[in-house]
Fold this sequence. Notes:
- The complex is a heterodimer.
- Chain A is α+β, with helices and mostly antiparallel strands.
- Chain A is 29% helix and 23% strand.
- Chain A is globular.
- Chain B is α+β, with helices and mostly antiparallel strands.
- In chain B, 31% of the residues lie in helices and 13% in strands.
- A five-stranded mixed sheet of chain B has the order 2-1-5-3-4, covered by helices on one side.
- In chain B, helix 2 packs across helix 5.
Amino acid sequence: MTATAEPEVGKARLRKEDARLITGQTRWTDNLQLTGMLHMAVLRSPVAHARIRNIDCSRATAMPGVAIVLTGQDFAAEQGSLPCAWPITEDMKSPPAPALAVDQVNFAGEAVALVIADNAYRAADALAAIDVDYDELPVVLDLEEALRDRDLVHPDLGTNKCATWVYDSAEAGSGTDVEDEIAAAEVVLERTFRQQRLIPAFMEPRSVVVDPSAGMFTVWSATQIPHILRWMLSAVTGIAEHRIRVIAPDVGGGFGGKLQVTPEELLCLLAARRMGRPVKWTESRTESMLSGHHGRDQLQKITLAARRDGTVTGLKVELLADMGAYLRLVTPGIPILGAFMFNAIYKFAAYRFVCTNVFTNKVPTDAYRGAGRPEATFAIERMMDELAAELGVDPLKIREQNWIRHDEFPFTTVAGLTYDSGDYEAATARALELFDYESLREEQQRRRASGDPVQLGIGISTYTEMCGLAPSRVLGALRYGAGGWETASIRMLPTGKVEVITGTSPHGQGHETVWSQIVADKLGVPFEDVEVLHGDTASSHKGMDSYGSRSLAVGGTALVHAADKVLAKARRLAAHMMECDEADVEFASGSFSVRGTSTVRSLGDVVLAAHVAHDLPEGMEPGMDADATFDPDNFSFPHGTHLCATEVDTETGVVRIRSYVAVDDVGTVVNPLIVDGQVHGGLAQGIAQALYEEAVHDETGTLTTATFADYLVPSAADLPAFITARTSTPATSNPLGAKGVGEAGTIASTPAVVNGVLDAVRHLGVKDIEMPLSPERVWNALQGRSADGSGDVAAGGLGSIDAQGGQS
Amino acid sequence: MHISVNVDGVTYADEVEPRLLLVHYLRERLAKTGTVVGCDTGNCGACTVHLDGHSVKSCQMFAVQANGHEITTIEGLARDGKLHPVQEAFRNNHALQCGFCTPGMIMQAIDLLADEPDPDDETVRKGLEGNLCRCTGYQNIVRAVQDAAHRMRPGAGPKMEQHSDSLRDESVVAEQPVGGE
């Protein structure tokens, strides 16, 4: 047997995608220009809550280049309601969600009219000539106030409460009763944290082109979910699904922000149908921030019960989650994705999770990188630090004392999940080594003792997450409207080249490269000979798309299975060609041979024989293609230990990250270059939540952070260099051993940074600072004032909440 | 208004509306879709091109302001099938993921290297402050720019991308092998 080639899996392959991206030969949706194409511009409500008394389009309609101006009344009969695929409870309240408001607007930024014109500039001009009369209604903005139901976002629902979802370990049989644990506890800590509202802020603004010609609706969209979008556009409009083709060409980032069926996608489709001509819409950045969904926005009340020796016993989580004004595709399910993660890596006896979803007159929320899990991780990692502070012990020790030991896997948690693999000790040991923990602690002591104006803090986050979304049966049990499988096809071409079709839909992750590596290894073909097709429902006929760190663990596994099917058929044909028993056929490095002989047939020979089909075994179909669909039977559970050293200038409130170490266990790594990149980018977004970003609505419900001048996406100058490393315990739920890496950095880093800042200033009397930890907030906290400069910092971490809501 | 602009080595003569943004002129009239629009406020830098060899944000300029000038876009960097060293460094260092910010980031990096041929970490970070990337956390971008600096001797000046004969300086091009190790 010839020596096998160096394995592709594990190799730091440079990306195939880059050739077009670094030369500008890209295929963004907005690049498209079709013959006769019209341009759509959207008029958005400047008010957060109002009845629409009248819309006068006459001036706009008369403007040069304007083909038509349309309002919600014009589309009322055909626009239906934008879909929500995740009714989390049977009695969940779900208001109609028109793409174009008909008689009422419920958030500032909601679409109220649209102009179709012969170019984008003229369409935008005409927006200014549309006159809308609004009768303003009281706005509902604060979560706790909303629950009092004094003013209602949707009066027809009779309440602002959307749904309440509960997990209780005593009821589920996965643990004891949390109230018993709290009653019996030696230490009970109660804290309230605010997960501020964030904006996904993908770099490519959303863009849609719909071509209604030739009896088909071809929809190009900057989306993460071409397959789901096709299904949902058909469901909403009644257009037969096989008459809709969705193409996600090059897509410039998503982070959950393009996991959506948007009003504008639907409106473009309806406008193109009405006009019988192609219609394009590309948003401005401000439109993106006003109408694309936001993320996070929860109020978290956490009660932790423990013994004085540091053993945690009970965890009670009471959440209020801001839905915004409407339920978008998976809005109500986002906090539920966190429900299983608050207990994290720790062995709690009892756990109770209650989440109340609340409507407000704000931009709808939905998935943003991590989606429910960063919120959970933040809360528990902050609580572990609070417990350590309360007991006066090292926060690392308290974690070590309570986490699942490496010899306890597989481990069924108090939230009912079974963690298949992990080694928290190994990841932590590696992180400590890279971080130089002990000497930083010594320096911290020195600075405290000398009263240095720049104080040093060490933040710890020992996180886990659930990825590889998802076992379909679990999604069904959670009342999600779709499955979590993924599919892949392999087409062996007669020249020996390979086409891979995947149901995943990459938008920066590098699937073309990684999928090629997997196939090259499995089939023994050159990496360069593999072409990956994705994102076009005409070629990639089915799929569940990309989100939730699922693509490799689920979609990559489907690809492995498809390759196995190709090899199984090829082996049978090779035996036939070499006139031997199939059991005597060996396969290595792309060639079949007969055991103990020099008879060899390359895979290419076998593929060609299958293609010409001159001499096939009895009953074998011509060709050498295979499809496989994989439905995982468990999630995957990446984990890791992140350590962050922060310097806090107590005179200015400025926070500087001095060093950041991330050690992640994401299972088996296919491409270390890409995995490192995912971690870097994830860290940037998690750090941004800790220090920089917040979507702010003023008291009238106007989003005041609707440009990149106001919403602080960090630049290169705002972020540190990261030290990354890995430990590995392969996932057992898929043959690749992959756990997923897309969200890890984001999930882990936010509490690491905040814990670090608090560790630097806790001895000065600061107990909590609300995110983002701007210099102003840090400085105010150091002056004993809450964020708005009034009053004292309340005990128990509530000070920042008082400042935000003014409720107590 | 009538304008005459040299873009990536080709001179175009066009009638444009005075309000037409340079980036829209490039994308929609000249099909230079490698240059993209990421925001409307000049914060993100995705639309960065070179005007006479120096970086400008093409969403912050009118096309008429480019009249009589020379524009280089991401599409005009590669020469004779060889990538510019900064393009190559971005690929070799995995300095891009979705790639949307990449054209602007590369154009800005070239401008930075013209002023700072051997920049340290902080100089690169400050020099790229006007270009946002949401995917990479900037770590590999910083590395790529420093890697490119080492590949380029003595530095990427504005001259190496000038196309018109009057501005061409063969000796500078020869001293700065494009794409070389």
